[in-house]
Amino acid sequence: MNSKPSPQPTALVLLTEQEKKEFLPPDLESRLRELFPDLIWIEAPVQEDEWHRVLREQKPEIVLCAWETPTLPIEATEHLKYVCFLCGSIRKLVPRELIERGLSVTNWGSSISNTVAECSLLLILAALRRVGNWSVAMRTKGEWKTSRHPDTLSLFGRRVGLHGLGAISCELVKLLEPFRVQISAFSPSVPDQIYNDLNIRRCETLEDLFATSDVLVELAPGKPDNYHIVGDDLLKLLPEQAVFVNLGRGMVVDEDALVRASRERGLHIALDVYETEPLPVDSPLRSLDNITLLPHLGGPTPDRRRDCGELALQNLENYLNDKPLINLIDLNTYDRAT
Amino acid sequence: MNSKPSPQPTALVLLTEQEKKEFLPPDLESRLRELFPDLIWIEAPVQEDEWHRVLREQKPEIVLCAWETPTLPIEATEHLKYVCFLCGSIRKLVPRELIERGLSVTNWGSSISNTVAECSLLLILAALRRVGNWSVAMRTKGEWKTSRHPDTLSLFGRRVGLHGLGAISCELVKLLEPFRVQISAFSPSVPDQIYNDLNIRRCETLEDLFATSDVLVELAPGKPDNYHIVGDDLLKLLPEQAVFVNLGRGMVVDEDALVRASRERGLHIALDVYETEPLPVDSPLRSLDNITLLPHLGGPTPDRRRDCGELALQNLENYLNDKPLINLIDLNTYDRAT
């Protein structure tokens, strides 16, 4: 099966104890060591100069690593052909020049989409049932409901609008299926076939999407074109009793407009991402009434990070067998990454 | 189709403006008025003596009503044959003697199960992602996560245990389907066929259920046998990192034991129901770290109460056509009701 000529490429792992535990639990570590009997394993964190020295001395062809890895230097990486990154954002780790030079880089890609979709469903349900309000009111104010007619809503039968139709949205559609919702999406670059396969209505404009969505889920990519694309004008189009959820990128939404929509029109909001992270202590979002806030936890929960490890193992096998790599980062993807 | 002899039975509606808006929105009200052209409609609330006078004077055969209805008197209800109650708990409204005497009573039965199941899924996801903690921490303490390795869990692939396998649990199973969970249940009276149809493992003991559930969902009925059946012994059997959710009846769970499980073993908890409701201001549950609390909102959200109205209309049609009533309350059900 292995069409790669001997000797086997040198592979180097750099992970903290915690990263190893989450991304490569024992069964996956065993499979990795079977693939690479001469694996070099270094425990992170390492200082930058130590990292450079290791790369110079070991001359790895493959590096497998996660968050706690210093930037790859331009020098001392001449032998490096493939960086298998277990996480998402690769711009801090890999200078563009290395990709220009032909370095292959992969990341967790869509292996995490189902967990982000799960958090999206959680925030949708939380916004509809006012979980943020009640959590605070019950735990810090000794409150109880005052009426048999609470201001709560069900997801069943509502109109859900997806701003963005990438891998996370596609996974979210599966989770929404039992709720018999009507789904619309705005994502101009996605072909009709995808909309048809998912039974989603295509919106030609963001205005149409916002005006027809009881539940607006913000999952648009954080590219410059999308900066503050969601502002007063769009938010004002949301139907009465609509809820707004952002699991995508904070920069897409004008937070001042969001605060106005909450204060002036009672919009219920649930957020996992923010323009500035960590969210500033004095952010007005923290003092809104109708809001559920999470500190950017939408990504893979530690118990599902092994899925990223599984994907990495698949890619390492593909590399050894000269098969195409999954989630290969080309210059285009690199430039669009956040 | 109408096999009932003329003249049409006298039907009386007693609802508040709000109840009418929620349970019988205009389209349903129209259908009701088509069924009963001579419908008597009284706006609640009414005083008890006024209520008795109306019943004596109008002699309705059918009463359609909701929460804001005074108890039906033993006297002045000789003509009454059917009480179509739009809500759940009928013991405050209907004295047992009237059912003994042959009065037919129906309630919302399982028409609300999907909304309670929805709230169950919400509390499961909230407990796994620590929404209660973060809502309070982000909104009242200016906090942010301190690590890339938060103490959060995904529902994907976990073992879910259902204590109770009634209509709500069956609806919940549908919502859990996309999460590829393994479901077990403890409900001795439910026949094997139901377990098999739902692809649920039958637990012969509660001990087995608790010891094998990463997510324990409490949905057992509030009958006297179940009083405090969930205490220290069972809670200690839960696996490490388990979460505990109660959407059923507060009396089933020993809250002191729950507090101990949280404080001493870090159990994450999400609750919608309590032993005493409203939950006392000084309840220790309110000051736990790892908890999400709702004030008994699991029932049908106001926007889905029209489903109860639809069911009531179906029952009124059935009554007129001498067909069996759905969710008819017999003495056995009456005595078990909470």
Architecture overview:
The structure is a homodimer. Chain A is of the alpha/beta class. Chain A has 2 domains: about 10-110 and about 300-335, Rossmann fold, CATH 3.40.50; about 110-295, Rossmann fold. Chain A has helices at about 15-25, 25-35, 50-60, 95-100, 115-130, 130-140, 165-175, 190-200, 205-210, 230-235, 255-265, 305-320, 330-335, and strands at about 10-15, 40-45, 60-65, 80-85, 105, 160-165, 180-185, 200, 215-220, 245, 270, 290-295. In chain A, α2 packs parallel to α12 and α5 packs across α7 (about 165-175). The longest helix of chain A is centred in the middle third of the chain and has 17 residues, at about 115-130. The mean pLDDT of chain A is about 95. At the A-B interface, α5, α6 and β12 of A face α5, α6 and β12 of B.
Please summarize what this structure is:
Chains A, B: Pfam families: 2-Hacid_dh_C. The structure is a homodimer of 338-residue chains. Chain A is built from 13 helices and 12 strands.
Layout of helices and strands:
The structure is a homodimer of 338-residue chains.
Chain A: E1 11-15, H1 17-23, H2 26-35, E2 40-43, H3 48-58, E3 62-65, E4 82-85, H4 96-100, E5 104-106, H5 113-129, H6 131-140, E6 159-163, H7 167-176, E7 182-186, H8 192-198, E8 201-202, H9 206-211, E9 215-218, H10 232-237, E10 243-246, H11 255-265, E11 268-271, E12 291-293, H12 306-320, H13 331-336
Organism (chains A, B): Aporhodopirellula aestuarii
Protein name (chains A, B): Hydroxyacid dehydrogenase
InterPro entries (chains A, B): D-isomer_2-hydroxyacid_DH (IPR050223), D-isomer_DH_NAD-bd (IPR006140), NAD(P)-bd_dom_sf (IPR036291)
